């Protein structure tokens, strides 16, 4: 399965950025008052480990890790180079923040905010790498929505399961984020399908037959969206009604939906 390293890389790194964004923007709102500041350490460390796993998968995909260093020569003109730079900055800022928080030293909050900013830029650069590739099915704003949606969904799921114990304002915020990410991407699908149907595939190199590839994976594509929508509904019901089992079931379905949709994304490219 040649898509596996890219699937792991994108999902792990984007999910890590989502967790970091929640901690940076909503830490005081969602975490403080429930746990001490030091209680943010597990989520920060988890986000760091998730990013490391993603970057390791990316290095394995490149075949020769030093190729990443060669790519840095073209930061001014290459989205891949920019993605590598901001991924490195994100990992460095987050890792240093984890160390400071572990030893209860000041300065970890600014590093967390900086890591969140680097992470957002990195996800944008990651999307641009695929949008500017010679693949008709990727050359669409749907790619941006897919990638940022993954950050929002995985980040909200992790924070909800780790910190939010009741149906308060923070849980409602997590439900809103998940619902928006799923619905916005779902609404974009007809536009994306119409655009790739109208594209002249003779002007691109890969894929040679994107619509045929999508047709072959039609069942997986539709199932992925059904699973994602079902996960959204379960997550919302569990979060708003303080039903832990339903919340967990919704979270599992959401993650499974992300895996299926990302598999389709790379398979039709």
UniProtKB/TrEMBL annotation:
Keyword Protease among UniProt keywords: no
GO molecular function, one term: dimethyl sulfoxide reductase activity
Gene Ontology BP terms: anaerobic electron transport chain
Coiled-coil regions listed: none
Listed transmembrane segments: 6-25, 37-64, 84-103, 110-131, 143-164, 169-188, 220-240, 247-266
One Pfam family it belongs to: DmsC
Organism whose genome encodes this protein: Salmonella enterica
Descriptive protein name: Dimethyl sulfoxide reductase
